[in-house]
Design a protein that fits this description.
alpha+beta; Jelly Rolls; four-stranded antiparallel beta sheet; 3 helices; binds N-(carboxycarbonyl)-S-(naphthalen-2-ylmethyl)-L-cysteine; binds fe (iii) ion
Length: about 220
């Protein structure tokens, strides 16, 4: 974490608004946390997506995901007819995934710290791209090797309605709007809660256009 990055966060935070909004026992929404860094985040994201383009992966059941996905970092999440897993290589290129840009790593660590998780070092960043109408059905994230570390997410572009459920598929979900620059940290007892994203509404974001991009930073290995 570079000191100048830290100053940026301090300077841009509106004084009145609470910095962190608790949504679960060990889960926090950090409204606008990434906004001071978007000028560095967006070009880094573009470079990653040139090296490892978004693609619509196929689930074990044979359905093509409505969300386009890619990854950076040492491990990337993939799915195909044989199952879900993390891979050191991008199956599209046969090459290792692009490195995690330092601005991504610093931001994820700072957000985790803010939510009470120190020394968060992500080895994987999953990139999800939603166009209007795309959604993510309720699911649990269980493909990581350990659940001690939190998952940190960054929302960019069009708004989304995030569903934060319980520990069984049928449990009631909270609906949490996520806007450009918002970050969420899920850890500890909340790590295995069901969650999903409602279909994205039509719209145009001034910087990202007609799309939402979500990054999730994970310790997968
Ligand atoms: C809550 N992505 O990629 S962010 C996913 O907005 C995923 O693209 C959504 O669910 C998206 O798996 C939601 C984050 C998220 C990730 C892991 C969680 C929320 C979580 C684990 C437990 C509880
Ligand atoms: Fe998930």
């Amino acid at each position: 974490m570079q000191p100048h990055t830290f100053d940026l966060f301090a300077d841009h935070q509106p004084a009145q608004q609470p910095r962190a909004e608790q949504i679960g026992e060990q889960s926090w929404v950090l409204r606008g946390f990434a906004l001071p860094l978007t000028d560095r985040l967006l070009p880094a994201l573009d470079a990653v997506l040139v090296a490892a383009p978004l693609r619509h992966m196929v689930t074990p059941g044979g359905f093509s995901m409505s969300v386009g996905t890619s990854s950076c970092g040492q491990l990337g999440w993939i799915t195909d007819r044989s199952g879900y897993r993390y891979s050191r290589v991008d199956p599209l290129s046969g090459l290792p995934w692009p490195e995690l840009p330092p601005v991504f790593a610093d931001l994820a660590e700072a957000a985790a710290q803010e939510a009470g998780f120190s020394d968060f070092k992500a080895d994987s960043c999953l990139i999800n791209r939603y166009i209007p109408g795309a959604k993510m059905s309720l699911h649990q994230d269980k493909d990581e090797n350990a659940y001690a570390a939190p998952i940190v997410s960054l929302s960019l572009g069009l708004p989304a309605m995030f569903l934060f459920g319980g520990f069984a598929r049928g449990d009631k979900s909270q609906r949490i709007p996520l806007l450009h620059g918002d970050m969420v940290v899920w850890g500890g007892v909340d790590r295995l809660r069901f969650h999903g994203v409602l279909p994205i509404k039509q719209g145009r974001h001034p910087q990202l256009g007609e799309q939402r991009i979500n990054l999730t930073f994970r310790v997968a290995g």
